[in-house]
Amino acid sequence: MAESQGQQLELDVTNIAHGGISVARHEGRVIFVGDAIPGERVLARVTEDSKSSFWRADTLSVIEPSEHRQMHVWSSASVARKPEDRAGGAEFGHIVPAHQRELKRQVVVDSLKRFAKLESDVATGVTVEELPGDPDGTGWRTRVRLHVDASGRPGPYAARSHRVIPVTELPLATAAIQEAAPLAARFVGEEHVDIVQAGTGGARLIVGQQKPTTITEYVGEREFRLADTGFWQVHTHAAQTLTSAVQEAIDGELFDPRAHNLDLYGGVGLLAAAVADRFGSSTRITSVESDKAATGFASHNLSEWIGAEAATGRVEKWIAQLASSANSHDRARLRASTIVLDPPRSGAGKQVVQSIGGLQPAQIVYVACDPVALARDIGLFADRGYDLTALRAFDLFPHTHHVEAVATLTRR
Ligand SMILES: C[S@@+](CC[C@H](N)C(=O)[O-])C[C@H]1O[C@@H](n2cnc3c(N)ncnc32)[C@H](O)[C@@H]1O
C-alpha cells in the first residue's frame, strides 16, 4: 500500500492514544498522528501505510488549533519545523501542562478499561498529579542522554528515528545541565554523552562507556549512594514523590514488619527505604535488583535497618526460586508480606505476576511507568485474586507522554 505514503490529508483529530500520538480517522481507517491535539483539524502527511488496520502521519500544519495548544516549549521540537527535523523527547510540549495531565489521565483510564477490563471508581477516578517545580513544566530533568552522529555532533534523536538533531537548548533539563551540556562540542567516535545532575556537586559529563563514579542523591535528609551511570529517578522531585506515594499506598492494617516483605526491581533501595522509614527499625524487607553494582549500593543505603537487605538477581528467577525453596514458615511470612514492585517499562509480565500471586502476599504496591503494561498486569493479578484498591498517577515527565502510576492491589 506504499502508494499512500507521503500523501497529505486534512484530518479531524478525535482522541489521544498511548505513546504520545493522537487518533484520527480517514475513510474509516485509524490514523495515528504526531504533534496534534484531540479536537484539532490538521494537515498531515502519511508516513506509514504498510498495515491495513492503521496508518501513521505527521502533522505538517494546524488548520483549526485546540484551545489547549501553546507555542512549543522547545523550538527544536516545534511543528513549525519539518517533521524529520523535530527533536524527540518532548512530544507534548505544544500542549498546555494542565491539558497534558488530562490527556495522560485519559490514557491511564482507557488502558485500565481495555487491558484490565476495569471501570471501577478507583480506576476511573484517578487524576494525574502535578509535581512541585516550575508550573510551566520545564527545568526538571536531572539526566539527559545526547546521541552522537557520524560527524561527532551530539543531540537528541528525532521522534521515532535514530537521526540526531543538533539543538542549542534543553529546556526540560535543570539549569545546571543546560549550562553544562556540550551542545556545540564534537565527540567523534562516541555513541552517546550523558549529563547527570546529582544531589551535590553540579552537573557531570559522562562520555561513552566512561568508568562510573559514586554520587550521592538525597530524599529529604536521607542519603543514597549510587553510580553516576546507574538508575535514579529523573525528575528533581520524583524520588521524594514516589517515596511518599509508596508509603501512603501501603495499607498499614495489612502491613506486618516481621513478614518477608519485598522491594522488587529495587535499584539502589529507594522504595525499600521508603517502606522501612514508614514502618520503623524492625521492618524486614529484601530489595531485589539485577544490576550487581546497584545492589552493592542498596546494601549500603539500607544498612540502618537490621532487617533490610539487598539481593542480586533477575526478579523472574529469584522469586521462582524463593517460591520453590520456601518451607511452611517462610510461606506464612510471605503470605503476610507486602510486595512493592517497580519494573522497567515492559512491566512485570505474566511469569512474575504468577509467581507473586503464588506467594499470596497480603498486598502489592505496583509502581509503573507504562499504563498499558500496568493495566495488563493488573488484569493478570485479578485472575490471581487481587483487586485494585487504590491508584494515583503523577506527572513525573512533563512535556512528554510518559506518566507514572502507583497502584495498590489487595488480596480478595
Ligand atoms: C524503574 S527502575 C526502579 C528502581 C528503584 N525502584 C527506584 O525507584 O530507584 C527498575 C529497576 O529494575 C532493574 N531491572 C530491570 N529488569 C530487571 C529484572 N528482570 N530483574 C531485576 N531487576 C531488573 C533495573 O536495573 C532498574 O534498576
From TrEMBL:
Matching Pfam families: TRAM (PF01938), tRNA_U5-meth_tr (PF05958)
One of the GO biological process terms: rRNA base methylation
Location of the active site: 369 (nucleophile)
UniProt keyword annotations, A-Z: Methyltransferase, S-adenosyl-L-methionine, Transferase
Record: residues binding S-adenosyl-L-methionine: 233, 265, 289, 342
Domain TRAM: 2-61
Source superkingdom: Bacteria
GO terms of molecular function: rRNA (uridine-C5-)-methyltransferase activity
Similarity-based family: Belongs to the class I-like SAM-binding methyltransferase superfamily. RNA M5U methyltransferase family.
This protein's name: tRNA/tmRNA/rRNA uracil-C5-methylase (TrmA/RlmC/RlmD family)
Organism listed in the record: Conyzicola lurida
